[in-house]
Every structure is written in structure tokens, then in C-alpha cells.
Amino acid sequence: MNVRSYNLCPMARTSGSHSDITGPRLRAAAQRLFARQGYAAVSMRQIAAEVGVQAGALYNYIPDKQGLLFDLMKSHLDDLIAAWQAEAKGQNPLDALECFTRFHIRFHLERPDAVFIAYMELRNLEPENFAVIEDLRKRYETVLEDILRAGKESGVFSLPDTKLATMAVIAMLTGVTTWYRDDGRLSRDRIERIYWNMVRKAVGA
Amino acid sequence: MNVRSYNLCPMARTSGSHSDITGPRLRAAAQRLFARQGYAAVSMRQIAAEVGVQAGALYNYIPDKQGLLFDLMKSHLDDLIAAWQAEAKGQNPLDALECFTRFHIRFHLERPDAVFIAYMELRNLEPENFAVIEDLRKRYETVLEDILRAGKESGVFSLPDTKLATMAVIAMLTGVTTWYRDDGRLSRDRIERIYWNMVRKAVGA
DNA sequence: GTCTATAGACTGATAGAC
DNA sequence: GTCTATCAGTCTATAGAC
Predict the structure, then answer these.
(1) SS3 per residue for B38-92
(2) pLDDT tens, A8-53?
(3) Residue contact A176–B167, C-beta within 8 A
(4) Which pLDDT tens digit goes with each residue over B135-149?
(5) CATH no. of A64-202
(6) How far is A105 from chain B (nearest CA, A)?
């Protein structure tokens, strides 16, 4: 949480020290390229060119390419869980499910690249990194599972199988990212409403 | 549709002519490896080792690596569309939707590797190949969209938006492939039933 | 902190022997 | 149809100058 000082620098330089901006730019470039071409198809030279430095300079900020991928995925999932915790309030199951439905769609549509990487690059994680990411992903799924279970137990929802309903709803909501376009037919809010209508009926509420 | 003759060959050979088995083995090995590691992360030498030949020999069967990927994806989608056409009968929308739901789950669970590749490797297709695959994918989506539209128009389904319902149902059903395990808690038939229960309610039937 | 240069290994694809 | 050998290029990551 240091105060950033580069704005105060009186000289613009084309080379030299840029520690406070190269790091974020590296992560942004990698996220964009990994999402478009895939982790395995992107070279460190390509990322470096996007950042505007030589490839060797990247290793001042990351241990290796794998560490860069892991960092991007973990940050995304940490953000997701933190954002939900900030959003969730003590609610009855029906309101909680509507809140989750709209939150999930909204959060995912705001970060298409991070979402794409989180779903597509799991197989490129080394085993120990994969275990960390899987754990975070399951923790998030549990949020929805808990809502559905509470609603089923209190008789508000009618569900043949809580676990399958969890997977079905998450898949349905996340699927929005595969077809949504900013210039599309429907606004995000309209999409949220339509999906909530379908989710509500699917869980028998 | 030639009669296969290698079963009649009296001699087992470790090298030489194997045109009638190397082709299928190549496709099978590539499908397995692409699904597990991703197209970009798999080398032709790795595929060749799995097949039991040297890398150069593969080029007797494929024009290049891209052609191999395209062939796998196109075959999968051709199979999918052909299988649905064999399955579909003249039915009312409700029966047709149940038929589609169960068909989609069953077909996808039987071919996990092909499904994985079809969804994950789209970005590794060259533009002209991508266009072909996208067209086939959309043709299959239209099957469901037509069922939902017919049901909505005849008043059997209650849908806020036919196009979004199409995407939502496909995403929900395809999602089964991400968590299904052969030794899991539920049989495939039980899963089909549970999903049909949720789909039926989601479309307001 | 970024540069240049490079080690050491791997890549897709092809040529020609058999 | 498969082999060996190879081309010409790519890759990640590091060392050392500045």
C-alpha cells in the first residue's frame, strides 16, 4: 500500500527503472494474451513485447512462466471470494439465491479474460498449484451449495439433488461468458433478470 | 468401407506397412493427448511415441498438426449432429425437450475427450477452420432453439427469452462433463433424470 | 531494472534411404 | 509406410554489462 511516486518524476525515460509500472503491465499483458491464445501458445518474448521490455526483464517480477499463470488464477479466485463476502448479507434462501445469481453473472462479465483463464488453463497448472486453485474453486461452489441446501431444508426450494443443482446452476450462469458481447441485444441487467427467472424456476421456488 | 485385411496377415511385424491401423491409432492418440495437455502443449513426437512410430511417419496420414486438430473437431460435431438426427422423431415440444436433454448428456458423457477438445481448442483453429466448426456448433444449438420456440409458441413452455434459454440449457447440460466420474455417486441414467427435472422446471413446463 | 547474448533443449515439417 | 537425419526456427531461463 505504498504511495505511488512515479507521477512525481519530472523526466520521462524510455529505459531504466520502472519497477512500479512494469509489474502490473506484465500481469495485464499476460492475462490478455493467455486468454486469447492460451498459456502454452504464448511466449515470454510475446508478453515482453506487449509490455515494452526485453524478455529477460520479466524475471525481475516473476519466478517463471508457471508462477505467472498461478498468480493470475489465484488472484482471480481470491477476488471472487472476497467480492462475494462483501456482497453477501444475512438473507433468506430465495433472496440469497437471487443475490448470488446476479453477483455471479455480473462479476464474471466484468472479467472475461480472468474467467477464461481460470476455466481453460487448469490443466497447465503443476500439481501443487492445481490443488490450491481447485480448493478455492470448491470453496466458491460451496457458497451456492449452502444456499440451495438451506432453501431445500426450509421447503422454499424443490430440488431432486442439491449437489447436481449446484453444478447445474453454476454451469448455466458461467455459460453467459461464452456468448455475451458488449454490443449485444441485451443489457447486463436484463440478462441477470432473465437468468434469475430461469434459476428460480429450476430450483422450484 | 473396405474389408479390413490385416487380421489375415500371418506375420506380426514391428515395422513396415501398417496403413490400416496407424491412421486410427494416430487419431486416438492425438485425441487423448490434446484433451489432457492441450493442443499447443502436445508435440508431434509425443503423439508418434504413443502410436509407436517416428514423427515423420505421421505425415503420411495428416497434412499438418492443424489439419489433425480440425479433423478431430469436425468428426466430433458431424457425429453429434448425425446422432441427433437418428434419435429425433416427430414429437411434441415437451417430449422433444426430454429427448434432447437425455441425448445431449448421454452423448457427451460417452466422449469426454472429444467434447473437451471441441470446447477448449476453438482458439487454436485457423480462421477458415474455425468458421466451419462454428457453423456446425450453431447448427446443433439451433436444434434446441427450435424445440424451445415451438414449445413457447404452443404455450407449453414459459420462457422470458428463447435464445438465452437455449444457451442456458446447453451450458447446464454440457457442464455435466466437467464433474462426472464413472465411479461417482450417481448413474448416468439417474443424472439424466435429475437434469431433465431441472430443465423441465426451468422452461416453465 | 533493463539490456544483450546465449545456453540447452525443443518445435513442425521435409528429404531421401529402404 | 516407416525409418533416420536434418533444417531452420522456436522456447524458457540465466549471466553479466550497464
Answers:
(1) CHHHCCHHHHHHHHCCCHHHHHHCCCCHHHHHHHHHHHHHHHHHHHHHHHCCCCC
(2) 343 434 566 676 799 999 999 999 999 999 999 999 999 999 999 9
(3) yes
(4) 999 999 999 999 999
(5) 1.10.357.10
(6) 12
- Specify the CATH architecture of the domain A16-62: Orthogonal Bundle (1.10)
What digits encode the pLDDT tens for the residues B105-137?
999 999 999 999 999 999 999 999 999 999 999
A177 alpha carbon, distance to own chain's centre: 11
Give residue limits of the domains in chain A: 16-62, 64-202
| Cβ within 8 Å of B, A 40-99 | 40-41
Residue B138: the pLDDT is 98
Record: contact B199-A198, CB cut-off 8 A? no
CATH number of B65-202: 1.10.357.10
CATH class label, B8-62 = mainly alpha
